[in-house]
């Protein structure tokens, strides 16, 4: 066997030849290197039998399987020379040290998320891998909602290289609110000011999926699988994520990274919260009930198109690892910010206003792909381009709405309906017809500022009810909201969804195990 280091495809790799076959493992995807104690049986195999005392070390690395699934695999190298063996161990360990892999993590486990398996998933599948990778952890099993969030305001956060949440989208949201809130508090920034220049959150968040939808994990990794996510944390991946801030007048309500949904998804959430005991099934039950009730809501939506980004929600290509559109959009936004500042962006740029009757208003910062809908609510949405896709589903027949929903699960275009419009936006406001009269403040500003009203779909007065906003799986207290997208505001231990490139196929197909 021959072992070598090299540089290929912009990354260091470890190359080894075994039985005339050539295998590559990027150094960034090595999990651990350990000296191997050879037992008597092993020492008595083949040519090692003849050696007085063979030495060996084992390299644990990421093996890529189908559908973005990662597994931990290993290969053991034998050697007659103890000094040479130690040199290899040392050299590989030094290479690992050079990477931005986490050493100390703070872990929050929600024991009641999803199928209530959070604790056992962590103990059986994740903790052994963290221990193999020599990662130290402080683990908190949450005792009530907001436990993790409150705790993040108190802990010595500088001690950690990352925070991990074991649970679903709601648990991620809690941890993100804790971290962002803590950063703003430490910097004296008032989150209630919708125009405040917020301080970015640089500590990475890892998600071990153990919830009901796990849409944030699925949309950023490509699969909802605890082992895969643990390995992304171990190798120290980093994926920036857009975050929307949601305000009601001058009161901060919440941040959102996946779905802000009014109407259909708001109603599903409100109904399903009463049925938490059903576990993930509650979404199917409430989904059917909400679909049958077929409620529509009247209101006004005003938005600023995201002109800084070159992408469109109707693009055929999706956001993938190292996405060019995300990079370009971020550069464009920082350039604009340097030249004109936030004030110009808020005050000068065009607002478009649409009044109508809607079955659903969905604003998504990412595709919102999840096991129920592998392509998501907006398949071409980008993780880190500083924009959200605003999807307006107007009042239509039950049958048409069903056709629209079914298209989330097949290859057909879900935006190709006369009653569905989609826009890429950097900020938006919504007021329901009901609150428009009461909250004249926001609407008056809107009326003064927004000249252009949509004439095709004039408001009708036959329905005055309000729905609720579903903000990443949590309900909001107000239906009148103002939303602004903050480009690349938090960072995850992820790398976006990888293309199934030739190289990746080579890594997985060369199936190192086959060679051993
Ligand atoms: N110990 C606890 N007891 C009760 N609620 C908790 C506890 N710990 C966390 N929570 C709350 O539970 C909510 C839901 O949890 P989580 O997101 O993990 O699961 P889920 O709702 O089943 O999944 P998803 O959000 O993916 O649909 C979170 O918003 C969190 O605030
Ligand atoms: C008759 C076939 C109907 C199929 C409909 C499939 C549509 C599924 C789309 C699910 C998108 C979920 C978006 C994610 C939202 C999360 O933020 C939230 C919290 O986990 N989950 C929900 C369900 O609100
Ligand atoms: Ca985005």
Oligomer: single chain
Q: Please name the CATH architecture of the domain at 244-487.
A: Sandwich
Instruction: Give the end-to-end Cα distance, rounded to a whole number of Å.
Output: 11 Å
**Residues in helices, as a percent range:** 25-40%
Which value, in Å, is the CA radius of gyration?
25 Å
Ligands in the model, by name, code or SMILES, are: adenosine-5'-triphosphate, the ligand CCCCCCCCCCCCC/C=C/[C@@H](O)[C@H](CO)NC(C)=O, calcium ion
Q: Structural class given helices, strands, pairing?
A: alpha+beta
β-strand amount: 25-35%
Q: What general form does the structure show?
A: elongated
Strand segment count: 20
Largest sheet: 10 strands, antiparallel
List low-pLDDT spans: 7-11, 445-462, 502-516
* CATH uppermost class of the domain at 244-487: Mainly Beta
Characterization of the model:
With about 525 residues, this protein is α+β, with helices and mostly antiparallel strands. Among the domains are: about 1-100 and about 510-515, Roll (PH-domain like); about 245-485, Tumour Suppressor Smad4. About 30% of the residues lie in helices and about 30% in strands. The longest helix has 25 residues, at about 325-350. The protein is elongated, with a radius of gyration of 25 Å. About 45% of the residues are buried. Residues about 5-10, about 445-460 and about 500-515 have low confidence and may be disordered. The structure holds adenosine-5'-triphosphate, ligand LY3EYVUO and calcium ion (CA). Calcium ion binds near residues 365, 385 and 388.
């Amino acid at each position: 066997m021959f072992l070598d280091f090299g540089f290929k495809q912009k990354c260091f790799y470890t190359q080894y030849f075994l039985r005339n076959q050539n295998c590559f493992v990027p150094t960034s995807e090595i999990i651990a290197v350990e000296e191997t104690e050879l037992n008597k049986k092993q020492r008595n195999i083949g040519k090692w039998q003849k050696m007085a005392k063979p030495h060996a070390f084992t390299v644990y690395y990421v093996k890529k399987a189908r559908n973005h699934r990662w597994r931990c695999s290993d290969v053991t190298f034998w050697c007659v020379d103890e000094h040479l063996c130690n040199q290899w161990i040392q050299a590989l360990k030094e290479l690992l040290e050079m990477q931005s892999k986490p050493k100390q993590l703070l872990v929050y486990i929600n024991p009641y998320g999803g199928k209530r398996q959070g604790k056992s998933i962590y103990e059986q599948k994740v903790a052994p891998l963290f221990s193999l990778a020599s990662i130290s952890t402080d683990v908190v099993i949450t005792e009530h909602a907001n436990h993790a969030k409150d705790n993040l305001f108190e802990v010595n956060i500088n001690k950690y290289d990352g925070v991990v949440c074991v649970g679903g989208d709601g648990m991620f949201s809690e941890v993100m609110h804790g971290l962002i809130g803590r950063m703003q508090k430490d910097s004296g920034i008032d989150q209630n000011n919708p125009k405040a220049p917020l301080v970015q959150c640089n500590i990475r968040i890892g998600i071990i999926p153990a919830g009901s939808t796990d849409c944030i994990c699925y949309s950023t990794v490509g699969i909802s699988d605890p082992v895969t996510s643990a390995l992304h944390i171990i190798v120290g991946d980093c994926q920036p994520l857009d975050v929307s801030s949601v305000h009601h007048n001058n009161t901060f309500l919440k941040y959102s990274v996946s779905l802000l949904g009014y109407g259909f998804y708001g109603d599903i959430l409100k109904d399903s919260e009463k049925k938490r005991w059903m576990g993930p099934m509650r979404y199917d039950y409430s989904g059917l009930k909400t679909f049958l009730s077929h409620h529509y809501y009247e209101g006004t939506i005003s938005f600023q198109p995201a002109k800084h980004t070159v992408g469109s929600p109707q693009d055929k290509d999706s956001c993938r690892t190292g996405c060019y559109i995300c990079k370009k959009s971020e550069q464009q936004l920082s350039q604009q910010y340097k030249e004109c500042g936030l004030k110009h962006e808020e005050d000068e740029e065009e607002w478009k206003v649409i009044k109508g009757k809607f079955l659903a208003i969905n604003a998504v910062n990412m595709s919102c792909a999840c096991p129920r809908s592998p392509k998501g609510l907006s398949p071409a949405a980008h993780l880190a381009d500083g924009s959200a896709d605003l999807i307006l589903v107007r009042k239509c027949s039950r049958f048409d709405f069903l056709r629209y929903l079914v298209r989330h699960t097949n290859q057909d275009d879900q935006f190709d309906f006369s009653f569905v419009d989609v826009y890429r936006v950097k900020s938006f406001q919504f007021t329901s017809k009901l609150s428009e009269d009461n909250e004249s403040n926001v609407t008056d500003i809107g009326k003064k500022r927004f000249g252009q009203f949509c004439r095709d779909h004039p408001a009708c007065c036959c329905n005055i009810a309000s729905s609720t906003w579903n903000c990443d799986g949590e309900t909001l207290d107000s239906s009148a909201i103002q939303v602004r997208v903050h480009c690349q505001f938090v960072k995850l231990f992820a790398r976006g969804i990888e293309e199934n490139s030739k190289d990746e196929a080579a890594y997985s197909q060369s199936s190192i195990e086959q060679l051993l």
